[in-house]
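ok so i was messing around last nite and threw this chain in just to see what happens. nothing serious, just curious
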Amino acid sequence: MQSSSYLSNALVSLLANHLSDYPDTTLIRFTNGEAPITRAAFFSTCERYCAFFQNSGLKQGDRIVVQTPKSLDSLCLYVATIMAGGIYIPLNPDFTDTEVSYYLNDSQPTIFICMLDRTNTLLQIARESNVRHIYSLGVDKSGSFYEHINSQNYEFTSVAERHEEDIAAILYTSGTTGRPKGAMIPHRALGSNASTLCKQWKFSKEDVLIHALPVFHTHGLFVATNVALVSGAEMLFMDKFDTEKVIQAMPSATSLMGVPTFYTRLLQHPDLSSAAQNMRLFVSGSAPLLAQTHEEWTKKTGHAILERYGMTEANMITSNPYDGIRKAGTVGMPLDGITVRITSEETKEEVAEGEVGSLEMKGPNLFTGYWQNPKKTAAEFRSDGYFISGDLACRDEDGYISIVGREKDLIISGGFNIYPKEIETVLDELTGVSESAVVGVPHADFGEAVIAVIVTQQEDELSQSDVANYVSSQLVNYKRPKHVAFVSSLPRNSMGKVQKNLLRDQFKTLFESD
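result:
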């Protein structure tokens, strides 16, 4: 893989530099018996895919949408896309046809690579969205993508010229309007964040990272993958989180990145204490980690979980220290090069130590805006360049930041961000529903569970199964309500706004026995 000066601070250059240092070392090991993959073999595949994309007429800035199960090819397609000058857009493989149709119409990709077992419906959807090139891909090296790749020898020549502010990826994140919006992530953000995390978390080629996260969002794709690629670390690659497999992997690994659900489930395993002896680092993010989980983990393993804070639009923002006190219930301090401030909603001035305010940040980690949505982009940035996170936070006397709430009713369940409005829009379209409200309530395993509160029309009678059957065709699994309550009316304030805080209080003990 060739390196170029114009990519000096971008992700592709970092990958190229580290590849030349140790090409023959193992990059990926599997738990299913597959042969390990060296860094040279990995990048050779990426270069082949890159040549195929360029030969297909991909121009710089064209989008490639990929919706496939997690596999080695998921990572190869990601790296090959940015090498070819394209913009990578990963989709959750569980997204419904309705959801996929929205993303394709919004992003207008040149290439769509879809799952082989859903080819019939997805090909039709892609054609209706005017996607020029459509390929299927199976986990067993089958599908039209491999047929085209193997049809001739696509010779790699060079990495497309891309600059730091050019967009490398678009990740879709929902919003209060219910319509997902694409966060444009530049090469600058990916490169700088990967380098910073390697330094602050002390990753090196001696590390073996257990990779059990999905690769369609920031945590699994940008944090775990990029840190391993840039640092020279090896990845122990799992298609999904499995408690038993992670326990078995720990003696030959050094680090794990996960969501709080990983840790609550691992705590229940009788062999955790002995399995964790060789590990040096456990990182948690994507959702708040309960202080109780933090304390139980330290007691059982002797390790303090390192909790950090990030989001789609800003990659990683803060982290508890590698060396130093990792305070339970906090997300640590700003990463190097990133500035964080907590401001009053009324005055827009910074609040005093210990006071709660709106969390804003500025730094090389930030996205450049929302795809084809300049109005929304402008609304989310202050005039001095600070991005408004939408989270409420406070800072203690030692500079540690705690996330204490969310300004936009965001639900985080199992590490996934869920915006109620998107689900409410779907529910309100169901015959028999007069109106709905969606809230998150505490859940021991998922952190929060989605609850739908529905007012039915007088002449119609709905059941939980009616609602479940409908939303299953419209929404990915993690967005579907885990409980549906039927009420005669929703609580409102004097201005007519639904008081979701009252609904959260009403149902907050619903899952206490789970």
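not much to say yet. The chain has a mean pLDDT of 90.
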